[in-house]
Design a protein that fits this description.
About 70% of the residues lie in helices and about 0% in strands. The protein has 9 helices and no strands. It starts with 12 loop residues before the first helix and ends with a helix. It holds the Pfam family TetR_N.
């Protein structure tokens, strides 16, 4: 998500962007009104337009900054030690809890909803998920393969499958149901995902 040159930095830039993020992540691009964004940011519409002369620029900047924040802290240690049977359930639990917290849940919803309108940003989101979550998990699996703890297979594929299972069972369900998911449900799903991998490859 490339930072746009037409965006103007200034004293209230973060205030305006944070206000816009609250509305865009709640209402999406089409549902967000400039009036609501200005109220959320506690600035006039004139001030809003002085920083972001175009709603699309504002939305893309919100996606960029939210994506940066969402992946700033990873859900598991990429240098995790210990046998797969002990480490993987911990990793999956951390990942499940990470997927269900803000701003990751609303970011996922907005990116999916606006993928046709902002395909480059959707692709950036997918690449970031792959680079920051799937690839480190695959490297851990490759380490277990090297130690003969799990049998030889395509580690990237199994890492991608485990992440997809958690997203499908947790994020998608939470977004479709519109209800908070009980923490125990996330933990149980994480444990089941780890068990399925270990049963298949141990």
């Amino acid at each position: 998500m490339t930072h746009q040159s037409r965006i103007t930095q200034g004293r209230k830039f973060d205030q305006v962007r944070n206000g816009a993020a609250e509305i865009f992540l709640r209402d999406g691009f089409s549902g967000a009104s400039v009036d609501d964004i200005a109220r959320s940011a506690r600035v006039s519409k004139a001030t809003l337009y002085s920083y972001f002369p175009d709603k699309r620029l504002m939305f893309r900047e919100v996606l960029r900054s939210t994506l940066d924040d969402a992946f700033k802290q990873l859900p598991f240690d990429p240098d995790q030690s210990g046998p797969a049977s002990e480490a993987l359930p911990i990793i999956m639990t951390g990942l499940a809890q990470w997927l269900m917290t803000e701003p990751r849940l609303h970011l996922h919803r907005v990116v999916i909803a606006e993928a046709a309108r902002f395909p480059e940003d959707a692709q950036t989101y997918d690449r970031t998920m792959n680079d920051r979550i799937v690839a480190p998990l695959a490297r851990l699996i490759e380490g277990w393969i090297a130690l003969d703890e799990v049998r030889l297979h395509d580690a990237m594929t199994s890492a991608r499958q485990m992440v997809a299972m958690l997203i499908g069972q947790l994020q998608h369900r939470a977004l479709l149901d519109g209800a908070d998911l009980a923490p125990d449900r996330a933990d149980d799903t994480a444990a089941a995902t780890a068990s399925l991998f270990l049963a298949a490859y141990s």
